[in-house]
Amino acid sequence: MMVCVYETWQEARALLGRLEYQRGNVEAALHVFDGIDLQVAIQRLQPSFSEKQPSRKGRSRGDSQHAVSQHSASLVLEAIYLKAKSLQKLGRLNGRLIFQ
Amino acid sequence: MTVGLLTLYLWMPHFLLNPALWYLADAAHECKRVLDAVEKIFHQGIPDVQVDNRLQDTVRQAVELLPELWKQAGCYHEAMSAYRRALLSQWNLDDDNCSRIQKAFAVFLMHSGVEAGPPSLAAQVDGSYVPKHNLEEAILLLMILVRKFYLGKIVWDPSVLEHLTFALSLCGQTFVLAKELEEIMPGVFHRVDRWNTLALCYSAVGQNKAALNLLRKSLHKHEQPDDLIALLLAAKICSEDCHLAAEGVGYAQRAITNAQGRNEHLKGVAIRMLGLCSGKQATTSPSDFERSRLQSEALKLLDAAISLEKNNPDLLFELGMLYAEQRNLNTALRYAKRFIDATGGSLLKGWRLLAQILSAQQRFSEAEVVIDAALDETAKWEQGPLLRLKAKLKTSQSLPMDAIETYRYLLALVQAQRKSFGPLRSVSQVSCFFFHTHIIIL
């Protein structure tokens, strides 16, 4: 239950960060992204991709679990990618200030 | 220790004083984390199915972004390995994505100034070809991109061909470039541009006839008859062949009329080409009157050209040659000396011209001093023509024993060259045998 809540919280941060990034609030986006823990996400997601052939029994449940994990994985990875993009933008902004 | 401290000292202020670089290095680290995580989750590379599009898009964008970030942060070695990682690992990239990375990597290899070294052994597939240096790797990447376009996988990007042209010209492989240009489908590249570039490629490898035929096509009145570069190249090719010199005069005259406005700076070259063509034309003219007229015209034109380009060493050499042909030896001598000064004595042909002019003035001992000086300046392998000249000078001074000694030396050089380069009978080799036997018989 705790894990589930934590995951939802991570997803929420990722979504909020993306929103801020899209609005152009790079620094706000960075604040939101800072709280995301990639390691936990990897550990949670690893088994869902590694298991090659899910057993026939309980397939529907396994599949839906799989889809949920993938969705959350893509959100977290995208968040880190957008963090890198935000830092790049910040770097360019600072570079421009220095060279002016 | 000292070197380490020095590097730190030189590098730190640059990095500490510029917060932009902190952010960019941070960005690169974050981006790298994305890729590390993806590699951790998918051990065998990303499978085509069962991955949602959003995740795949993020991965593709991150793979493309990472080398850019390292470049912007000034960490070129990291950028290099990021490119390698992008192209060698299984990221399930699409064609556009992959070719953008390949092109950026090729440009980086050519212009970054960082020596790449071969990819790590772990990344190499057994039996695959490993490029020897940056330029070769860049050329191979660009050739792959051109092939991809032929297969219809990517849209045409003219800058790929520009980079490939630059890279192949840089290492003198213009024949390979010509083959690449010939393979391009019609409709991609304007045909006149293609003919002109092909002509440059062929003339660079000495296939002047092919080059001139292409230029005749592109300078036809229905194509681009006023293209200055094509006119100048055509005139230059014609100036080297006495049977084409008259045709070259026409091209050079057209070049002079077109060297206006933006191309004003090429006027000197155009006048010089006209002078060279006239000079060449003089050598085949049937009457003495005509010959002296053409020669004096050629000299007048080259003098006009040198007033526009005062320090052009090629022009100095050509003037020296032309005056020598006209038997105006004192002036020829002056130009030969100026040529040697301008090139710092680094070119063999200047020393040869000077020695030949001196020997024409019957100043054999001075000519010999020049040859000895030239021999000091020249690498052993290229001394052949100078040694021949020296032996001839000895013969002219009635010193046959000295001449034999020089020929013996030349023979040894020729044999050593033959052993290392295979049986290649050059003119100097044959004449060496001839003179050697001739003098011994005498």
Topology:
The complex is a heterodimer of chains A (100) and B (442).
Chain A (H helix, E strand, L loop, with lengths): L1 H22 L2 H8 L4 H13 L8 H41 L1
Chain B lengths: L1 H15 L2 H23 L11 H20 L3 H13 L6 H17 L22 H17 L7 H13 L3 H10 L7 H14 L3 H11 L9 H12 L5 H14 L8 H18 L3 H21 L4 H13 L3 H15 L4 H13 L3 H14 L6 H13 L3 H22 L5 H15 L1
Helix pairs in contact in B: 2-3, 3-4, 4-5, 5-6, 6-7, 8-9, 9-10, 9-11, 10-11, 11-12, 11-13, 12-13, 13-14, 14-15, 15-16, 16-17, 17-18, 17-19, 18-19, 19-20, 20-21
Question: What does this protein look like?
Answer:
The complex is a heterodimer of chains A (100) and B (442). Chain A is mainly α and 100 residues long. Chain A has one domain. Chain A is 84% helix and 0% strand. Chain A is elongated and about 45 Å long. By secondary structure, chain B is an all-alpha fold. Chain B has a domain of 61 residues. Helix content of chain B is 73%, strand content 0%. Chain B has 21 helices and no strands. In chain B, helix 2 runs antiparallel to helix 3, helix 11 runs parallel beside helix 13 and helix 12 packs antiparallel against helix 13. Chain B is elongated and about 90 Å long. The chains are: A mainly alpha (100), B mainly alpha (442). Chains A and B meet through helix 3 and helix 4 of A and helix 2 and helix 3 of B.
